[in-house]
Write a structure and sequence with these properties.
- The structure is a single chain.
- This protein is α/β, with parallel strands linked by helices and 279 residues long.
- The chain has one domain (2-278): 3-Layer(aba) Sandwich (Rossmann fold).
- Helix content is 38%, strand content 18%.
- The chain has helices at 7-17, 24-29, 37-50, 54-57, 77-84, 96-109, 145-155, 172-177, 179-190, 202-206, 225-231, 257-260, 265-269; strands at residues 67-71, 88-93, 114-117, 130-136, 156-168, 222-223, 237-243, 272-278.
- Strands 1, 2, 3, 4, 5, 6, 7 and 8 form an 8-stranded mixed beta sheet that branches.
- It starts with 6 loop residues before the first helix and ends with a strand.
- The protein binds S-adenosylmethionine.
- S-adenosylmethionine (SAM) is lined by residues 14, 18, 22-23, 71-75, 78, 92-95, 98, 119-121, 136-138, 141-142, 209.
- The site of S-adenosylmethionine (SAM) has 24 residues, from strand 2.
Length: 279
């Protein structure tokens, strides 16, 4: 665990930090300050346009009538879409803010489903409860990626799929911003290590997730495809693909993000690693 925090401390800090909904800065820049249906639609339209590849990785239409658990809810955009396509929706988040937002959304649009507060490290669900688990940008914040993957596997039915996004250890940003840690990690992997990048500085975490006060997330892991495959060894199959790039350093003078997204860079050195693990 990074930063010498024990798990209870990570959980407690996560619960506080993430109650400011992830995406709040973007919402503000869009002029979204309330949670009316029209404001949330504005946010959701932006979210899906900003992350267009979500539709490639999350098979929304196949989830109709299926038991789907989402972990790490944030502003609830994916949550609402899952409920809208007819998934039998359950949500889980360690922070009260996202849980309240998702339950508000479901009620506001008259959809079934329920979100509850809790940690994926002790998922409050019986074995083999779900056909899909969806976790976008969450498991690398828990403080124990391997345990989180094991819990997802436990609650999935045989043949069920975990669809998730975690941060990629060999992205252009990591080479640029945390070069020596990245090279050290690469060297360790060459000698057989399989796991996540260890200790991280506040600035590294804040480059990925910062609250309005500019503080970084309490805990963040980065992982390679090779190590993630190993961490998913309890699953029958695994596939991974990198995505995402932005106009931050070193691409401030490059073409706009929508053009960069079409380039080869996100495929090889993208910020995020999308993976599907089948039980
Ligand atoms: C970066 S946000 C992602 C939110 C959303 N999926 C999105 O794409 O915007 C990470 C979320 O994971 C949640 N989270 C962190 N640790 C968790 C844990 N141990 N169990 C469940 N949720 C957790 C946080 O509260 C937060 O809502």
């Amino acid at each position: 665990m990074s930063n010498m925090m024990d798990q209870a401390a990570v959980d407690s800090r996560n619960s506080t930090f993430w109650s400011e909904l992830c995406g709040t800065q973007f919402a503000k820049s869009l002029g979204v300050t309330d949670s009316s249906a029209s404001s949330l639609k504005k946010f959701d339209d932006w979210y899906f346009a900003f992350y267009p590849y979500l539709f490639v990785h999350i098979p929304f239409e196949d989830m109709k009538g299926k038991d789907v658990l989402e972990i790490g809810l944030g502003y609830g955009t994916v949550s609402q879409r899952l409920a809208e396509v007819g998934a039998l929706y359950r949500g889980l988040d360690i922070a009260p803010g996202p849980v309240a937002m998702v339950n508000h959304r479901l009620k506001q649009v008259g959809l079934d489903g329920q979100a509850q507060q809790g940690s994926i490290l002790q998922a409050p669900f019986p074995d083999e409860s779900f056909d899909y688990v969806v976790a976008i940008g969450c498991l690398h914040h828990t403080g124990d990626l391997f345990k989180a993957l094991e819990e997802c596997q436990r609650v999935l039915r045989p043949g069920g799929k975990l669809i998730f996004m975690v941060y990629y250890a060999y992205s252009y940003r990591r080479f640029y911003q945390a070069r020596s840690e990245t090279l050290k990690y690469m060297l360790r992997e060459i000698f057989g290590f399989r796991g996540v990048v260890g200790l991280s500085a506040q600035a590294e975490r804040a480059a990925y997730d910062a609250n309005q006060a500019g503080e970084g997330a309490p805990h963040t892991d980065w992982v390679s495809i090779r190590s993630l495959r190993k961490l998913c060894r309890g699953y029958a199959s695994f596939s991974g693909q990198t995505e995402n790039i932005d106009n931050g350093v070193p691409f401030e003078r490059s073409p706009p993000r929508r053009e960069l997204l079409k380039s080869w860079i996100p495929r090889w050195f993208g910020l995020d690693l999308y993976a599907t693990a089948t039980k």
